[in-house]
Design goal:
The protein has helices at residues 46-55, 75-93, 114-122, 132-138, 192-205, 235-255, 274-286, 288-295, 302-309, 338-348, 379-386, and strands spanning 7-12, 23-38, 59-69, 100-107, 147-154, 160-168, 181-189, 221-232, 263-271, 323-326, 329-332, 352-358, 368-375. By secondary structure, the protein is an alpha+beta fold. The protein has 2 domains: 7-255, L-amino peptidase D-ALA esterase/amidase, CATH 3.60.70; 263-386, Ubiquitin-like (UB roll) (Roll), CATH 3.10.20. Strands 1, 2, 3, 4, 5, 6, 7 and 8 form an 8-stranded mixed sheet that branches. A 5-stranded mixed sheet has the order 11-10-12-9-13. Helix 2 packs parallel to helix 3 (114-122), helix 5 (192-205) runs parallel beside helix 6 (235-255) and helix 7 (274-286) crosses helix 9. The protein is globular and about 70 Å long.
Length: 390
């Protein structure tokens, strides 16, 4: 997949991990309109704190990513390392350090191997590649494959603009204003304030609707840069294209959750408001009992009822008004026959399982809804994380 006009990339191995690329730079020809959201973890790393300030003025020209090393909980030395990395990339590209966003992902508590990074920056060639997939591969940690997505939209001058997304992250994912690492690039011409407002709305419905294991990362970063080379676009059309790309990436990330074999999509409707719908949907998709039932192709809808019921602060949820469905088949309150349950096994054995709960708090067309994305829980998840640093 090709990067949009105005962007080039450089990937390399700087020695953090011997057998794969672990360093990536995305650079624009000129400063771009930009927006970004970050984790709210109280243990966020220097990459997050530094980049939050750099993205605050709505302008970025480059992104640098170090993978397989988070540089989190490394104290003042880690702060200095992140700043030196940004300054080195800026010097190599000929741009301002404050126009460089830095992101890191990997093991917590280890500093960057700065001697190797310095050596690479001293001879780093100008970014020339337009291969988005190479960038996606370079930023992976435990992902099993690179993740990219693309959409197009018309410009006001009759041309075409593209939106390309690159993401990684299949574990430590329960987003809080962002999730994993995601970089969305477009050649559309967009005002920075519009881009920020639109991107935040899209993130809320996509990346923030994703959960693999309920654990919020210390390094979550999602950013969008617009080079403007394709020309101006309609704001509504841009939101549609951004949503298409980010939703595609969200589904890819959920399906590739650590050890995952099944994508789980949960929709809750007839809720009091969107917040309630999303809260209940997250309770379902995050339940270890629901996730293991999906993994075992066990149509145990009682576990879904349990997950709804544990939202005990939502006093307006009445079990007598709730409807539970798996694969579009109603299982409660209409009694599920043995034939119904047997028919569900085929759906549960597929690559994607859908769960639909109507709360009945605001029935009909007056209620709010939310859809969230997750995965099953397998012994593979336990194995990956039991041996993560060893």
């Amino acid at each position: 997949m090709q990067l949009p006009a105005g962007f080039r990339a450089h990937t390399a191995n700087v020695g953090i991990k011997d057998d794969t690329t672990d360093f990536a730079v995305i650079a624009a020809e000129r400063p771009c309109s930009a927006a970004a959201v970050f984790t709210r973890s109280r243990f966020s790393g220097p990459s997050v704190t530094l980049s939050r300030g750099h993205a605050g003025d709505g302008r970025l020209q480059a992104v640098v990513v170090v993978s397989k090393n988070a540089n989190v909980a490394t104290g003042p030395d880690g702060d200095a390392d992140a700043l030196e990395l940004v300054e080195g990339v800026a010097h190599a590209l000929g741009c301002e350090p404050t126009d460089v966003l830095v992101a890191s992902t990997g093991v917590i508590g280890r500093r960057y191997p700065m001697d190797r990074i310095r050596q690479h920056l001293a001879s780093m060639p100008a970014p020339r590649s337009t291969d988005a997939d190479a960038v996606a591969e370079a930023i992976m940690t435990t992902d099993t494959h690179p993740k990219t997505a693309r959409a197009t939209l018309a410009t006001s001058t009759g041309g075409e603009a593209s939106v390309v997304g690159i993401a990684k992250g299949v574990g430590m994912i329960e987003p809080d204003m962002a999730t994993m690492l995601a970089f969305v690039l477009t050649d559309a011409e967009v005002d920075a304030a519009v881009l920020d407002r639109t991107f935040r709305a899209v993130v809320e419905r996509t990346f923030n609707a994703l959960s693999v294991d309920t654990d919020t990362s210390t390094s979550d970063t999602a950013a969008v840069l617009a080079s403007g080379l394709a020309g101006p676009v309609d704001d509504a059309d841009l939101e549609v294209a951004l949503h298409e790309v980010c939703l595609d990436l969200t589904r890819q990330l959920a399906a590739d959750g650590e050890g995952a074999e099944t994508l789980v999509v949960v929709t809750v409707d007839e809720a009091r408001d969107h917040a309630q719908a999303k809260r209940v949907a997250k309770a379902i998709v995050n339940s270890p009992l629901v996730k293991t039932a999906v993994h075992g192709a066990d149509p145990n809808w009682g576990r879904i009822a349990m997950a709804v019921g544990k939202c005990s602060d939502d006093a307006d949820i009445d079990q007598r008004a709730v409807t539970i469905r798996i694969g579009g088949r109603e299982l409660y309150p209409k009694p599920a026959s043995e034939a119904d349950l047997d028919a569900l096994v085929e759906h549960l054995e597929g690559d994607e399982v859908t769960i639909h709960v109507s709360l009945g708090v605001a029935p009909g067309g007056d209620g709010a809804s939310a859809t969230v994305y997750g995965c099953d829980l397998t012994d593979g998840y336990v194995r990956i994380n039991a041996d993560y640093t060893t």
